[in-house]
Amino acid sequence: MYIQEISIDIKTEVDKDELVDEFGLLMSFYRGNGQTQGRIESQYIENNKIIWLPYTLEKRSLAKQLNNFYVNRQSKKLEDLCNSKLKFKTVGKSYDSCKASCECEKSAFYILITNYITIESPITCGSCYKSVPLYKLPIFYDFGYMPILSWETNYISCDSLQMNGEVGERWALNQMQKINSQLSKQGLEICRKIEDLTSIPTFYYLHNYRKFKGDQLTTPCPSCQKKWDLKTQLHDFYDFKCEKCKIVSTISPNS
Ligand SMILES: [Zn+2]
Ligand SMILES: [Zn+2]
User: Fold this and answer.
1) How far is the CA of 36 from the centre of ligand 2 (A)?
2) Residues 92, 3: contact at Cβ < 8 Å?
3) Which domains does the chain have, with CATH numbers?
C-alpha cells in the first residue's frame, strides 16, 4: 500500500470550507473508481495549500489515464477554483509487511472478500492471493465500482457488529454466514456480474462461525449440499470451495 500526497496551491479568494468539501468530493470519486483505498484520508490546509494523503494499492493508482469522467470533472473544478494545478507525489509505502497488489495478466479466479479492518480491495486474486485494484476490472457501473464498494461497506458494518458483540451480533453473523442473507445475495450478484464482465470465475467468501463437534471438521456446501472441503488449504486460508456454487469458506477459528 502506498501513501500518496495530492495538493493544490490556492491562488484565489475561494472559501476554504467550500474547497474542503469539493476536495472531499474528489476523494470520493477516486474511491468510487477504485483508485484510492479506505474511507478517510488525512488532510490539512497549510498557508495557502490544501493537502490530502490517500492510500493506494499501486504507485501508479492516481495516474491520469486511470481517471474516470467524475474524477476528471472534479479535478478541473478544483483547479478552476484555485487557479492552479493539482500536484501528485508518492510519500512512501505504508509498512514493510504490506503485500504488493496483483499483477497477474489473467487471474485463474477472483474472490470477493473483506473484513472489518482491511482497506485493501474487496477483490482478491485466486492466482497470487493479492488484492486486485478495482480499476483493473471493466467498468462495473456508472464509470466506476460503487456497487462493489457498497457491498464492502455493508460487510464491514456487519463484521464490526459481530466483533463488538453487544449490538446485533447474531443478526450480523447471520448476514455474513448464511448463503441466502441479504448481504450474501448482494455479494453473489456482484460475483456473477464480475464474471459476466471478465469471464473470470468469481467466488464469494462465506464467513463461518459455526463450531464443529469433536473431530467432525467437514460440512456440506450450504448451497448445493455437496462435499466441498479442500484436501489442502487454498492460500493457507480457505478450507472449503464449491466450484458449482462459486463459494469459498474457512474452518471456524472457534472450533
Ligand atoms: Zn494475481
Ligand atoms: Zn455448492
Assistant:
1) 34
2) yes
3) 2-93 (3.30.70.100), 110-249 (no CATH)
